[in-house]
């Protein structure tokens, strides 16, 4: 039962972190550790050039 609870807490914290990183996509220094945002930023750079 405790493992399920900790998993739920981990999921909730991960979801909140993911949503906040989506809002902070303008500043790459706060979400540069995320590979998903890194690929998104690189794709946007490719589009610009």
From TrEMBL:
It comes from the Eukaryota. Residues 29-49 are annotated as: Disordered. This is Bm13226. It comes from Brugia malayi (Filarial nematode worm). The lineage of its organism: Eukaryota, Metazoa, Ecdysozoa, Nematoda, Chromadorea.
């Amino acid at each position: 039962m405790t493992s399920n609870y900790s998993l739920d807490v981990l999921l909730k914290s991960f979801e909140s972190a993911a949503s906040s990183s989506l809002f902070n996509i303008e500043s790459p220094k706060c979400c540069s550790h995320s590979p998903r945002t890194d690929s998104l930023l690189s794709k946007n750079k490719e589009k610009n050039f």
